[in-house]
Amino acid sequence: MKHQEVPVPFCDKCAFETGAIFRHLGHEEADIINFEKEFRQFRRGELLYNEGSRISGFYCIHKGIIKVFKTGLDGKEQIIRFAKPGDIIAYRSVLSNEVACTSARVIEDSQVCFIPAEILISLVKSNSTFAHELLKLACHELGEANSFITDIAQKTVRERLAEILLLLVEDFGLDEQDYLQISLTREELANIVGTATESVIRLLSEFKSDRLVELNGRKIKILNKKGLEKISNVFN
Amino acid sequence: MKHQEVPVPFCDKCAFETGAIFRHLGHEEADIINFEKEFRQFRRGELLYNEGSRISGFYCIHKGIIKVFKTGLDGKEQIIRFAKPGDIIAYRSVLSNEVACTSARVIEDSQVCFIPAEILISLVKSNSTFAHELLKLACHELGEANSFITDIAQKTVRERLAEILLLLVEDFGLDEQDYLQISLTREELANIVGTATESVIRLLSEFKSDRLVELNGRKIKILNKKGLEKISNVFN
DNA sequence: CGGTACGTTGAGTCATATCAACCATAGTGG
DNA sequence: CCACTATGGTTGATATGACTCAACGTACCG
Fold first, then answer.
1. Domains of chain A by start residue, with CATH
2. What is the distance between the alpha carbons of residues A170 and B168, in angstroms, rounded to a whole number?
3. Distance from CA of B64 to the nearest CA of A (A)
């Protein structure tokens, strides 16, 4: 299937709209990126890059959703985070000059810009505000990773599933009918929570019996946010 | 008990010896830190800072070991990492301007330098190499956090315990008799692995029966590293 | 000598993983 | 148009890893 012709977004306009980190750049700097970047389109299921590979640049998401994951034992995925418009991925490997520690795959048809590594490095060198913002970003992610470690280590699967549902609501929002604006397979949900697919299925249908959610295939309708918060123990 | 009088270390000498991040500073910059820093001593059990508090600076470890942890449900600790000479802690909160997402407590009597937040921020602004090194540091930690998430989510307690023992060997080394150079309570071990104290005790004594380790109170002697590697599944 | 913190062991329970079977759906190719 | 296949979802039965609770031992300390 051929990709439709789509206009390539301008970096400073896109950054302004999506809140991407490039909003901290001057016009000339944004122009450099705009000139050097490569606009790419991907369909659900396509792989952007693979764990263990050396990476020559990083990606800024213009549209769509990408999952960032590690592959553990017997190939089981652990989803680390999702990237949505305005987010950048693979910057970790570029900045630390290590091979990719994660893979990235498209969840929802995406448009992304690929930006060569040198550009990022030189911006860090030349624009200290940008460097500071990148540090904030990395440090913030680090804080989230630490919380997630504690959750996985201490909470039950049931608690974590409720929490993840709420996090997804935060990140992707609900439509007019309170349906979660991201569509995941049960297996993907399991790979965030860190459990078996069957466990997610069983717990979801418990949540359904308890009138916390409604299920229509992959579409999940949030009926009782307070109830989910209570289960997830977010306030401890 | 009174603290002994100890000479305050010079930053560039200390950075050179410990490999602290300040080795990327010029002499004048190191002098600024040297002038502004506050040298402090702590004994095992003392708290450096507490989760949720706003922090006015960060710490560089000169001597000793600090545990960095989050407090989860019912006050159970999750140890996130250890800091040893040359490491800095609390820089995350300073850079992201968020409250501390972890607490820090002394594991082994320590000497640390407290450096005001403004100094770090201004160095990030003025020295782009330093900023880049900080980014590398944060990104590297992020990579480790991601691995840890995957491990906790996918490995058994047994595998994780073996892995943690090996990580401790990496980080703190063995003495002439192959004893691990860090002394932790069973509870602390459990709080790294993310399990119950009793489980650690049982598994350690299994490891002992299998001639993988020898136990003398808190001292752990590593008898068979290969065996532990095999159990930990590190090569998958 | 009592107190406190840590370590150890046993028994019982439960949450969760695993295994297996089955259904639904959609895309494919003859 | 109909098998054919692949993928994802669901459910039940069973197994078990790990937690919890409880009791007790040990060691150090004032």
1. 11-152 (2.60.120.10), 155-232 (1.10.10.10)
2. 37
3. 23
Question: How far B192 CA sits from the closest chain A CA (Å)?
Answer: 9
Distance CA A127, CA A119 (A): 12
* Nearest DNA or RNA nucleotide to A208 (CA to C1'): D10
Compute the C-alpha angle B110/B114/B118, nearest 5°: 160
Amino acid at residue number A23: R
A53 touches chain B (CB under 8 A): no
Contact between the CB of A157 and strand C at under 7 Å: yes
The pLDDT tens digits of the residues spanning B172-188 come to 999 999 999 999 999 99
pLDDT in tens, A41-98: 999 999 999 999 999 999 999 999 999 999 987 889 999 999 999 999 999 999 999 9
Q: Distance between CA B23 and CA A30 in Å, rounded?
A: 32
d(CA B124, CA B118): 10
Nucleotides of chain D within 7 Å of a protein C-beta?
A: 8-13, 17-22
Read off the pTM.
0.95
Nearest to A142 among B128, B138, B147 (CB): B138
User: Tokens standing for A26?
Assistant: 């001057």
Q: Where are the alpha helices (DSSP H) in A63-107?
A: 91-96
Say if residues A222 and A180 touch (Cβ distance below 8 Å).
yes
User: In the numeric block, which tokens belong to residue A111?
Assistant: 């448009």
